[in-house]
Amino acid sequence: MVELAPPTMLIRYRDGRELKTLIADQARIWENIQIEEDNPDATDDDIEDLPRRSRSGSAPRPVRRVAKPAFDFQGLAETDFKTTPTGTNWRRQNSLGGLLAGQLSAHSGRTFASQAVSRRCEVYVYEPHRFNPQEPRREAKFRFAVHESGVLHGFYIEKNDGPMDSTWDWTRFSAALARDPGLCTQVAAVLAEHDLCWQLETGVIGRGDWTLTQVNAAGGQAQWRSGNEAPETISWVEFVERLHALPAGQWCDLMVCQSLPRARAIALRVGLANHAAKVWHALLPLYLAGVQAA
User: Fold this and answer.
1) How many Å apart are CA 243 and CA 90, to the nearest integer?
2) Alpha helix stretches (DSSP H) within the chain
């Protein structure tokens, strides 16, 4: 059910959830869907940046519908490795973006969807009933990002640099780790099997002095390396304590991720989606720790 109160609208879902959003934002989403349907060859920059359709004047000309395959992704190309999505189409629902969600759904027996991140070479994958597209920073999700030298993908969650209420999945995620430090030990086996690491980027938004911390599994313990400092070997319990001790005024982007060099990502071709989905399925306990109430 939808209630209109311009400039906003309230959407009530069958499961009782409510979403308050701008009417203009929902119109934009609908227009993007129509662009995809009307022009199967539209690229990602077409979908994001085309001007809105006129709501006055002559009626739009009829468009011949063309049957499209479920997925038309055959692999990443050299031209996909760039800093902006202009001229690419891999993030779309009938390409790698949708295929990632479909493969994770098949592996997990759960229903996942994908969303292209505006003007970034990234997609988020998530369970739709646990994700507010208007506030993606609050939500735990899986992230697939293409950059100039390769691909970074994995579990992704963000910590606010201010107060956080229960709408922030970080609150559930950090509480779950505190209740069950064994979860980190369980994930440590996944790190070793798939060559993953914990990655934390912390800092103050608007300032350039951000710190990158990488944490690897090392003989049943964690190897913590922050910035240019020498690595430290700590217990997973201490690792969780350090997460809790992050300054309240600092933002944190946390990933448990795998880095694929460009050549490796290209060589996987269409199998890239299944490769990523297998890793994400192994990381599902972390995702559920963030989205499920205790």
Assistant:
1) 34
2) 23-38, 44-49, 96-108, 169-179, 182-194, 236-244, 262-267, 271-282, 284-291
Considering the domain boundaries, does residue 208 fall inside one? Answer: yes
Query: CA 80, 86, 92: angle at the middle one, nearest 5?
Result: 70
Whether residue 166 is contained in a domain is answered as yes
For residues 25-43, average pLDDT: 47
The number of residues in the chain equals 294
Answer yes or no: is 89 within a domain: no
Q: What is the structure's pLDDT at 35?
A: 47
Model pLDDT, residue 69: 45
What does the pLDDT read at residue 5?
Answer: 64
Confidence at residue 101, expressed as pLDDT on a 0 to 100 scale: 97
Identify the domain containing residue 230 by its residue range: 138-291
Q: Report pLDDT digits (tens) over 69-110.
A: 468 899 999 999 999 999 999 999 999 999 999 999 999 999
CA separation for the pair 102, 99 (Å, rounded): 5
How many domains does the chain fold into? 1
The mean of the pLDDT values for the chain is 84
31 Cβ contact list (under 8 Å, min separation 6)? 50, 52, 53
For β-strands 141-147 and 122-126, DSSP reports them as antiparallel
* Residues 6 or more apart whose Cβ sits within 8 Å of residue 221: 233, 234, 235, 236
pLDDT above 70 for 66: no
- Output the CA–CA distances (angstroms, integers) from residue 35 to 29, 39, 80, in the order listed: 10, 6, 21
d(CA 191, CA 119): 30
Domain membership flag for residue 126:
no
